[in-house]
Amino acid sequence: MSGIYGLNMNLKNIEREDFKGKKVFLRVDLDVPIKSGKILDDLRLKAWFPTLEFLLKNGAEVVLAGHLGRPKKQFPISNFQFSKENEKFSLKPIAQWVNNQLELHSDLDEVEVNRFKAFKTKGSVIILENLRFYKEEEEDDEEFSKQLALFADIYVNDAFASSHRAHASIVGITKFLPSFAGIRLLEEVKVLSQILENPKKPMCVILGGAKIETKLPLVEKMHQFADYVLVGGEIAENTKVLLKVAHEKISAEQHTKSALLIADLTSNQKDITQKSAQNFLQIAQKCETIVWNGPMGMVEEEKSKSGTLDLATGLSKILGYKIVGGGDTLSFLKENNLLKHYDFVSIGGGAMLELLAGEELPGLVVLEK
C-alpha cells in the first residue's frame, strides 16, 4: 500500500540541526490522567523526555507546550484568572514533573512570558500553561500562531498523539519558524509506516473504545491491509449494522478477503463476553502482526473489565509482533503489569489509527522536507 505515510516520508530530523544558543518551541503530549494534582500515569511524558534532554544537551533553551483535557476556553491573552472548574486542567503538576525529572531540586516560578501564563524552572525550560485554555489554539488562528512563534527561533513537534489535529501549536506555528520532528515522533512514524507498508501476515487489528464518530470510518479502511478486523467496546454495539454493511461493501468492491468479527457484549453492555474474548484470541494466535487500540469494556469499573483483561492476558502470551496504542488501553495494561509484553507501545490513539488508515496527519505534512 502506498501513500504519504509510506516508508519514504521525509521528515526533518532534529539530530541534524545545530541548537546551540537557540530558543526552541517544543510541542509535546501532556494529556495524561491527573487526580487531585497527582499524575496517575506518566507514560506519555516519558516518551518525549529524550527529545527535551537532547535539546538541552545541545545548548538550547526550551519552551514546552501542550494541552490537558478539554477545558472551557477562558483566557484572552494576558488574563489568567482560573474559573473553578478549570483548575483541574492546569499544567502545574506536569511542570513540577518536568522540574523533578531534570533534578533541579528547586521550586517552580509562576511567570508571565509574552503575555502567556507559564512555569519556569531554574534551568533553561519554560512550560506554558494549557494551550486549550485559549480558543484560538483549536481554531488554528494565525495571529495566535504568530504569538506562539515569538517564543522561539525553532519549532520541534514531538507530540505524535496530537498530530492529527490542525491546531495552532501543531500546524499554524510552522508557518513562522523552521520546523522539525522530535525523536519520539520519528520513531512512531517509522514503526507504524512499516506496519502500513509491509506487515508480516496474517495481520489483525483489534478496535475498542467509545469514540464511534472517529473509529467507524477507520474500521472500513483497515480492511485494505488487515486480514482480520476485530471490534469490541461501545463501538461494537452501537455500530454493528453499519460495520457489517461497510464490510460487505468493501469486500465486494475491492475483492478483499478480510474477515470482520464483532464482539458480543455482556448483559450490562459494559464489557465484551468472555466467549468473544476467546474468539478474538483464537484469531490473534494465527497472526504474525497484531494491532490493538481501545479497551473492550469500561475498564475503570472493576466489574466491567473481565473481557478486556482476558483478551489482554491472552495477547501477552502470543508470539506475534504486537503494537498497542490509545491512552485508556495503555493505562489498563500498565495497571495490570502487561505492557511489557507488547513489542511497540504507541502513545497515539486517534493519530495512530489515522496513520494506519493512510490518512494525512496535518502535523506531519508540515514537517516534510
Structure description:
The chain is an alpha/beta fold. It contains 13 helices and 15 strands. It has a 7-stranded mixed sheet with strand order 5-6-7-4-1-8-9. Strands 12-11-10-13-14-15 form a 6-stranded parallel sheet, sandwiched between helices. The longest helix has 15 residues. It is globular. The N terminus is likely disordered.
Comma- or semicolon-separated keywords:
7-stranded mixed beta sheet; 34% helix; alpha/beta; 6-stranded parallel beta sheet; 15 strands; 17% strand; 369 residues; disordered N terminus
Give a nutshell description of this structure:
The chain is an alpha/beta fold and 369 residues long. It has helices at residues 43-57, 92-101, 135-138, 142-149, 183-197, 212-222, 234-238, 240-254, 274-284, 306-316, 327-335, 350-356, 362-365; strands at residues 23-27, 34-35, 38-39, 61-65, 109-113, 116-120, 125-128, 154-157, 179-181, 203-207, 228-231, 259-262, 289-293, 321-325, 344-346.
Describe the main β-sheet briefly.
Answer: 7 strands, mixed
Name the helix and strand elements from N-terminus to C-terminus, one letter apiece.
Answer: EEEHEHEEEHHEEHEHEHHEHEHEHEHH
Cα gyration radius (Å): 21 Å
Structural class: alpha/beta
Note the beta-strand portion: 15-25%
Low-confidence stretches: 1-8
Could you estimate the helical fraction of the residues in percent? 25-40%
Overall mean pLDDT: 87
Give the number of DSSP strands.
15
* C-alpha termini separation: 22 Å
General form:
globular
What is the count of helical runs? 13
Please list the strands of the largest sheet in the order they lie side by side: 5-6-7-4-1-8-9
